[in-house]
Amino acid sequence: MFTGWCQMLKGAQVTMKIHDDGVFQVAGGLAEKPRRRRADCLSADGSASKPRSGDDPDGGQTFGTFMKLPVSSFPVKRAMLAGAVWLLSSTAVLSSDDEEKKTAEKPPVTADRALGSDLPSWASLAGEFRVRYEGRRALGYRQGNDDGYGLIRTRLDLGITPASWLKFGFQGQDANAPGIRDVPNIGVFRDGFDLRQAYAQIGSERSPVMLTVGRQVLAYGDQRLVGALNWTNTSRAFDAVKLQFRGEGARVDVFSAQVVQNDPAVRINRSMEGNNLHGVYGAIENVLPGSTLEPYLLLRSTRSVVNELNQRGDLNRYTMGLRAWAKGLGPWDYNLALVRQWGDIADAVIDAWGYYAELGYSIDAESSPRLYVHYNFGSGDEDGSDGRVGGFDNLYPTAHFLYGYNDLVGWRNLRNIRLGAEFKPHPKFGLQFDFHSFWLATGNDALYNVSGVLSVAPPPGGATDLKVGNELDAVFTVPVSKAVSLSGGIGYMIPGPFLKANTPGNGNTFTYLVASYKF
Ligand SMILES: [Ca+2]
Hints:
Helix content: under 10%
Oligomer: single chain
Strand content: over 45%
Number of strands: 25
Bound molecules: calcium ion
């Protein structure tokens, strides 16, 4: 058995054990009202660049008993864990069999000692265990083509802060997908214990300049174009250099990044050389009353891509956008953006654009109901052989929550109306209902899924009826405690004329149930 413990801030302690039979136990206790210092960029929910206001993750809460995780189904590499614990603890924590005895002799720090001067205030540890079941019926709109699988993910976040202006952040992640078929994009679902983040940060969240170098999460705006994709089991990280400037009511980030390829066959995931995303992303408050304006310019460049003229060459796609949003304008909230794309792929010219507009209205009533309407547009390619690339590319988004929970539709060659309502019948029970209607922007281009991958090609000569279908979604959330949350939902795509004409035409159902535990 391998045992480690670590002391978190202000009286919290965590004990970890890996038994020989593979059972992984985590136990935590808090001496008194704690304030966990979880770094923004280590935030397990992926909302890296926008810490929620008033978020005090564990205020006054005790998480007490052991939690058992069946490690046998997702092989946590004990050496990695040992390394994490070692870094956490200023005293000895052990990883080898020889050292195991010493660990056993050394009791976990007591509550009294934890309040003492020996507490390692320069370190923080957090983590998340998430398990989800997903069921899919009529994949490819074909009756009987069903699938059901689990998604299990464990994260350990480690922060080291040697000085107020210097921080090192690490995040280990193990993602498994028991029961899933061997699909081409398996790296979305499964990846053994790997390093999701490892970065150094010079400067603090309050300083006018902050530099972050290394493997990290990038999340900008509402994550329509750059996000952490936390919904998927393996999610997304970048190898990046990011420079942030802050002033009164304004912020600018300048970054250069390569997306990390989640690959279960690779011990430590790599980012692809020459596959770059560079960007300047600004945020200015109160130019419009109560609103934030976000102008940005992004450049995606990839080497050696084949274009629609069958030429091989470099891709350079510029994306310029302007987003405006506000919450709490009386009962109203809004969020809209206009996005233009240009550039080239060898001799073909990129000429694409997109926009979205969201409007919400909150009703001052017992169950806090909010009604909203969204409209999304992403251009398609009118002619697949004219050397003008018209399809909009939504780059690296967190798109799952936007274009239907079934993930069958993405922000490309799309017109989409969404009508929704959310409310809380009980403080610990939230409900959300959505209706989506989807059309192609042009019948000469395909339907693309949430990942931007071609899903249903148009017929020769183009589709005459652009209506793809309608989707109904229902989702519930139960925030059991600050640490534990449950949610689930069901989505049903009702095929419209385009799907009926170009697929087997059966309705597609997606169901899921997820529980997460943050520690
Ligand atoms: Ca074209």
